[in-house]
Amino acid sequence: MGKLNAAILPVTPFQQNCTLIWDDETKEGIVIDPGGDVERIAEAIGKTGINVQQIVLTHGHIDHVGGAEELKSRLKTQIIGPHIADKALCEGIEKQAAMFGMPGGYRNAYPDRWLEEGDIVSFSGHEFEVFHCPGHAPGHIVLFNKVARFAVVGDVLFNGSVGRTDLPGGDHATLIASIREKLFEWGDDVSFLCGHGPGSTIGQERKSNPFLT
């Protein structure tokens, strides 16, 4: 088992962080939230030489899901996640595109497997535990690697902010509970990447995030 590597590609007009994570020895890895700009994502995968084991979705919003089916076809792999509570969102991507006035190319997503709390996403010996964290979206999941003290949290928590809750299925109190009762339990030393903008640490957000202090 080699060292974990991660790279972020901002995609779609929402500048959503599509994340590549891979083992530097085996080159096996995963793609998280390929929301669009699939050509760029495929080019990055080719340059790094990643052997993509799975495409993982944190939740069903268009900027996280819109390019998943196209990338699946290119890579001949599976889509897993999010939680089944986001089934309607995943299957309504084309409607979301129309709602936001976005151009064509975004496709409904049909995951091969939904993820549940406690499931494990793994490759080359690296294990990421799945946590179901609703609030931003009903089926939002996050991934936590206990050994590396590293997480990918999608749109649940940001550097200095939290996920918006004014979209269908959102609920602010539920989101804050997800952060406090799950993410904050990991420990202050845990670093994370999020769905938009720069990452942070749990300790920094516990200390200074205005939505949580």
Q: Would you mind describing this structure in some detail?
A:
Helix content is 24%, strand content 27%. The chain contains seven helices and 13 strands. The longest helix is centred in the N-terminal third of the chain and has 11 residues, at 38-48. A hairpin with an 8-residue loop joins strand 7 (126-132) and strand 8 (141-145). It has a single domain, classed as Metallo-beta-lactamase, Chain A (4-Layer Sandwich), CATH 3.60.15.10. It is an alpha+beta fold and 213 residues long.
Overall SS class: alpha+beta
Q: What is the number of independent domains? A: 1
Name the CATH architecture: 4-Layer Sandwich
> Whole-number radius of gyration?
16 Å
Element order, helices and strands?
Answer: EEEHEHHEHHEEEEEEHEEH
Q: Spans of 5+ residues with little confidence (pLDDT < 50)? A: none
User: Which range does the strand content fall in?
Assistant: 25-35%
Shape: globular
Distance between the termini: 38 Å
